[in-house]
Amino acid sequence: QLDLSNKTYVVMGVANKRSIAWGIAETLDQAGARLIFTYAGERFEKNVKDLVSELPSADKHLVLPCNVSSDEEIADTFAQIGEKVGVIHGIAHCIAFAEKAELEGEFLNATREGFLNAQNISAYSLTAVLKEARPLMTEGGSVITLTYLGGEKVVKNYNTMGVAKASLDASVRYLANDLGKENIRVNAISAGPIRTLSAKGVGGFNDVLQAMEDHAPLKRTVTQEEVGKSAFFLLSDLSSGVTGEILHVDGGYSTIG
Ligand code: 0WD
């Protein structure tokens, strides 16, 4: 069960070494899985290829572009995956975007365009990806996405992204219900705050980190590696009875009132 050497996973959303997706990729690589990395655009290509080349099993892995705002691009990427590897066993969807102006001040300042853009990239993309991935998951499988507490409760400055995460959380439940009959499970990890490229865009992020250290039961923040270990659980057979679930990997912070 701990050996993933006959499994193939698509890892979407590595921007750099600090990306949560990278923590997940390292854990899967160590377990022997074959990985297909997708990146948003040319800007990230070299970075992702260089990073992947450092992995112990680099030769097995593939790196492909996939901007999830385009249905054509998603279809093209998964067609290539189908040609190159055939069957896939899971996906780690670690993608989100909102303009900086949407991540500070009052939520009421949200613009129609900013709101819809966040929903598009951060929530709808999971469904769009699963439409194309489903035909390749003929042996069943497991899909995870990354969410945040700001989708369940009001978290200062998270605003438009919080509403997008609420939509993502609900999508997880509906997708889990649709795909359960094919033995495809869909779950989310609600990660505690981790300093990444995306996190830099959220106003007052240092205060959020400090609040974790002060109030989380574990009295500290969590690491990419810890998210990676929980992702391993959800992506492997260890969690074969779990679907439609939001697993908080946040040092217990969400349990504190
Ligand atoms: O504190 C944090 N960092 C938390 C992050 C706490 C809880 C949840 N999360 C979530 C984020 O909301 C996101 O869903 O984790 C996920 C990963 O975020 P991250 O690791 O914090 O941030 P980052 O390293 O910036 O990765 C975000 C990825 C980037 O990777 P690539 O290489 O694909 O560019 O999302 C990507 C972004 O570029 N992304 C897109 N990917 C494909 N198509 C798009 C797009 N249109 N837009 C953004």
UniProtKB/TrEMBL annotation:
UniProt-listed GO biological process terms: fatty acid biosynthetic process
Pathway: Lipid metabolism; fatty acid biosynthesis
CDD domains assigned: ENR_SDR
Species the sequence originates in: Salisediminibacterium halotolerans
Keywords: Fatty acid biosynthesis, Fatty acid metabolism, Lipid biosynthesis, Lipid metabolism, NAD, Oxidoreductase
Protein name: Enoyl-[acyl-carrier-protein] reductase [NADH]
Recorded GO MF terms: enoyl-[acyl-carrier-protein] reductase (NADH) activity; enoyl-[acyl-carrier-protein] reductase (NADPH) activity; NADP binding
Reaction catalyzed: a 2,3-saturated acyl-[ACP] + NAD(+) = a (2E)-enoyl-[ACP] + NADH + H(+); a 2,3-saturated acyl-[ACP] + NADP(+) = a (2E)-enoyl-[ACP] + NADPH + H(+)
InterPro entries: Enoyl-ACP_Rdtase_NADH (IPR014358), NAD(P)-bd_dom_sf (IPR036291), SDR_fam (IPR002347)
Catalytic residue positions: 148, 158
Binding annotation for NAD(+): 13, 19-20, 95, 165, 194-198
PANTHER family the UniProt entry points to: ENOYL-[ACYL-CARRIER-PROTEIN] REDUCTASE (PTHR43159), ENOYL-[ACYL-CARRIER-PROTEIN] REDUCTASE [NADH], CHLOROPLASTIC (PTHR43159:SF2)
Family recorded in the similarity comment: Belongs to the short-chain dehydrogenases/reductases (SDR) family. FabI subfamily.
Chain residues that bind substrate: 98
Its EC number(s): 1.3.1.9
The organism's place on the tree of life at top rank: Bacteria
Subunit structure: Homotetramer.
